[in-house]
């Protein structure tokens, strides 16, 4: 259980978004509401667009954009135990009988493949350093994404690499922003370290451009043993350098966790 109050910060939220937020907000602040109950309520809220024989229209896409926007907006506000409960709902959704939808001319299993979730998360990544994006929200967003990488069938190693790059592969001029990125980067190791190692496969040229290294890293532009070792070394350096004691302790913990994971 977490303590709110939490607020829906989406611009001009729809009725669906408002109802979804109420469901999720009430759930994370309670110990008596099962995740499966919330998952079923979410499914029923989207049952018309999902179950329609013409579910390849804009209605199902709109419902999915709205659903993930609410999950992400709330995730940014939640402490660690609240994020775990939010992930529990997503895992409970996977137990709902399969419904296949067509989004962007591709068929997907709505509560298994989670269509639109990746693009929704990418939109949330865009305004990393904007004034309204607080440090806590950015760390929470990374923590949520890391937990999903560890728990669901998502394969968004790119989000981890981008945060690691900002935190460890570049030297930022703004110490507060740099500390924020290090804080966020530790979440990936602590919650999805083994899954990141599992993503250490070859990439195509398009992926390599997206995963290009920062100024301090000169190895392959992909998730690989060389990059993993570089991050591990940099976490150790951060842990020993002057700075925020809490984040330094997290960096040390991340380094130790990486030592226990073999890659290559």
- Average pLDDT works out at 90
User: In what order do the strands lie side by side in the largest sheet?
Assistant: 1-2
How many beta-strand segments? 2
Quote the distance from N terminus to C terminus: 39 Å
Beta-strand residue percentage:
under 5%
Enumerate how many helices there are, as a single number: 12
Residue share in helix: 55-70%
Number of structural units classed as domains? 2
Main β-sheet, in a few words? 2 strands, antiparallel
Pfam families: DUF3632
What is this structure's SSE topology?
Elements: H1 15-28, H2 35-45, H3 47-51, H4 58-75, H5 80-93, E1 100-103, E2 106-109, H6 117-125, H7 135-151, H8 157-169, H9 175-198, H10 205-210, H11 225-240, H12 245-259
Antiparallel strand pairs: 1-2
Helix pairs in contact: 1-2, 1-4, 2-5, 4-6, 5-7, 7-8, 7-9, 8-9, 9-12, 11-12
Pfam family, one: DUF3632
Descriptive overview:
- The mean pLDDT is 90.
- The protein folds into two domains: 1-126, no CATH class; 142-264, no CATH class.
- It contains twelve helices and two strands.
- It is mostly helical and 264 residues long.
- Strands 1-2 form a two-stranded antiparallel sheet.
Quick take:
This protein is mostly helical and 264 residues long.
What are the defining features of this structure?
264 residues, two-stranded antiparallel sheet, mainly alpha, 12 helices
């Amino acid at each position: 259980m977490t303590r709110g109050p939490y607020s829906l910060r989406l611009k001009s939220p729809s009725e669906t978004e408002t109802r979804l937020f109420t469901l999720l907000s009430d759930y994370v602040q309670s110990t008596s509401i099962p995740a499966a109950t919330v998952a079923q309520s979410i499914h029923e809220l989207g049952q018309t667009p999902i179950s329609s024989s013409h579910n390849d229209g804009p209605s199902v896409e709109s419902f999915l954009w709205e659903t993930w926007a609410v999950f992400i907006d709330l995730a940014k506000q939640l402490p660690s135990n609240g994020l775990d409960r939010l992930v529990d709902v997503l895992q409970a959704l996977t137990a709902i009988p399969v419904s296949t939808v067509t989004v962007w001319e591709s068929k997907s299993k709505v509560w298994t493949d989670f269509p639109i979730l990746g693009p929704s998360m990418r939109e949330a990544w865009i305004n990393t350093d904007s004034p309204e994006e607080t440090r806590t929200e950015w760390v929470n967003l990374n923590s949520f994404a890391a937990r999903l990488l560890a728990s669901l069938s998502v394969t968004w190693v790119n989000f981890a690499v981008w945060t690691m790059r900002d935190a460890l592969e570049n030297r930022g001029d703004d110490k507060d922003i740099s500390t924020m990125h290090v804080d966020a980067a530790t979440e990936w190791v602590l919650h999805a370290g083994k899954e990141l190692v599992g993503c250490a496969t070859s990439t195509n040229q398009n992926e390599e451009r997206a995963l290009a290294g920062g100024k301090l890293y000169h190895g392959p532009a992909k998730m690989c043993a060389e990059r993993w070792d570089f991050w591990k070394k940099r976490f150790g350096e951060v842990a020993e350098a002057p700075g925020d004691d809490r984040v330094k302790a997290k960096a040390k913990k991340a380094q130790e966790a990486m030592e226990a994971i073999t890659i290559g």
